[in-house]
Q: What sequence folds into this?
């Protein structure tokens, strides 16, 4: 099988050949990968800023946002059949399992020894066939196959929003999303579907094509911050933007940071104390968030979903990973 892999020794990103995956456990599912999305993590991997190959290997096959169709199931698989469409989760439990991984919350792994398909210690999905355990696959209803590749990034937004709502101790009504990337746009769509008065702020000009996709859904966009909100989702990768919004957050406000790196700047601790505010970090997603993603996808406006995705060939992957960032929020490669 053709696969796109990072070689951590040669520091190259190259097409290589891979044996078809082995299908060994009776809870395993073999599936054909049809589409894979690319995100900021993949681009950071492609420039060796993060990630690691599987133990004892030098290469890592990238790709963690996959959509596939089941070819064969092990005898113990109960919920999936040949022909079903699936999206794999990304993270796998640490071994021996820490208390979070043991209760099925690998996204909250506390040992730090988890692995992630296509990112950390496990090969990913930029290839033709894959095997995963039934428990690591989310079934995609037929009517959502055309946008199913968005389920993984959407699950990350769903978990972040669930965390914010679990922490907020009042009646949050307004939301602000920082960032016009796929996670930011999907987070805004979830918050709107939940009835929040949501707006998005980012640096892109007001006439940027991504802003037009928000406009389609009556989600206001601003390129200069005009105040904060009860719930703030940071998906910009900018510490300055996060701190600016934090300094204006109302009482009881909750900010979830998803992408901002370490940075310097005054953190308004005193203001946070007297206003009972919270800043929460969030990564990856639990099964509940994946299922919420499937439900929300079915509610979102189809036109907006279609506008989020630009499809291109599998052979163009290298360009998407290493070339100038594309205007489309989500570039999807078709295998
Ligand atoms: C993925 C997550 C993953 C995170 C950190 C993100 O791009 O969507 O599933 O946990 O990267 O590796």
A:
């Amino acid at each position: 099988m053709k696969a796109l892999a990072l070689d951590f020794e040669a520091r190259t990103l190259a097409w290589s050949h891979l044996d078809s995956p082995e299908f060994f456990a009776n809870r395993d599912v073999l599936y054909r990968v049809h589409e894979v999305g690319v995100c900021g993590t993949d681009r950071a991997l492609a420039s060796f800023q993060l990630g690691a190959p599987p133990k004892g290997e030098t290469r890592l096959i990238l790709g963690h946002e996959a959509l596939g169709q089941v070819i064969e199931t092990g005898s113990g698989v109960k919920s999936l059949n040949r022909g079903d469409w699936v999206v794999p989760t990304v993270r796998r439990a640490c071994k021996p399992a820490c208390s979070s991984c043991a209760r099925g919350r690998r996204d909250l792994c506390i040992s730090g020894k988890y692995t992630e398909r296509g990112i950390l210690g496990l090969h990913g999905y930029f290839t033709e066939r894959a095997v995963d355990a039934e428990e690591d696959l989310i079934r995609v209803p037929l009517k959502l196959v055309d946008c199913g590749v968005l389920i993984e990034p959407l699950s990350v937004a769903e978990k972040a929003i669930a965390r914010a709502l679990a922490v907020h101790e009042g009646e949050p009504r307004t939301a602000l999303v920082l960032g016009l990337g796929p996670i930011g746009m999907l987070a805004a769509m979830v918050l709107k579907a939940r009835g929040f008065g949501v707006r998005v702020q980012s640096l892109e000009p007001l006439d940027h094509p991504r802003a037009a996709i928000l406009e389609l859904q009556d989600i206001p966009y601003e390129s200069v911050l005009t105040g904060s909100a009860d719930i703030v989702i940071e998906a910009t990768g900018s510490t300055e933007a996060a701190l600016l919004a934090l300094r204006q957050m109302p009482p009881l406000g909750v900010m979830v940071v998803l992408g901002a790196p370490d940075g310097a700047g005054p953190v308004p601790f005193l203001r946070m104390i007297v206003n009972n505010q919270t800043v929460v970090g969030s990564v990856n997603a639990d099964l509940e968030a994946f299922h919420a993603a499937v439900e929300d996808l079915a509610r979102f406006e189809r036109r907006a979903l279609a506008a989020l995705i630009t499809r291109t060939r599998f052979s163009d992957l290298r360009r998407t990973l290493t070339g100038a960032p594309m205007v489309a929020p989500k570039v999807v490669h078709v295998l």
About this structure: The first helix runs from residue 40 to 46.
